[in-house]
Amino acid sequence: MASTTRATRRQVSQPDVTSAARHLQVVRRGISSDRTVAEMLSVAPSQITRWKRGQVPDHANADRVAGLALVVEMLLRWLPPDVVEEWLLGPNEHLDGRSPAYLVRHGQVAEVIGAVEAMKAGVYA
């Protein structure tokens, strides 16, 4: 029984093999290319390809991919797909002029979600 518990804990603590690939599918609905996704995440384009094929990213990159997917999914509910990438890469007044992609890359997804919510509410900075 103890070995089953340890195995279960180990599985829970490891990133899901298919999560990165699923998240990247969401991301690509709003971002034009894997190269752009790689630039947003500050990784090599070949890394995006490996993750799409099932390689498991380390925890920090798994969090960044999941965060980017969450933000893209939220944006796609309010913006046309061809505007999402521009919004992510451009300076944002709600983020003190920083780009949302920059903050996602640095693990500050909550701030980006706040900017999305402000945009949805029509709040001007």
Descriptive terms for the model:
125 residues, mainly alpha
Summed up, what is this model?
The protein is mainly alpha-helical and 125 residues long.
Largest sheet: none
Distance from first to last alpha carbon: 56 Å
Q: State the secondary-structure class.
A: mainly alpha
Number of domains: 1
Determine the mean pLDDT.
89
According to DSSP, the number of beta strands is 0
Please describe what this structure looks like:
The protein contains eight helices and no strands. It is mainly alpha-helical. It has one domain. The radius of gyration is 16 Å and the shape is globular. The chain starts with a helix and ends with a helix.
How are the SSEs placed, and which strands pair?
Elements: H1 2-13, H2 19-28, H3 34-41, H4 45-52, H5 59-76, H6 81-89, H7 100-105, H8 109-121
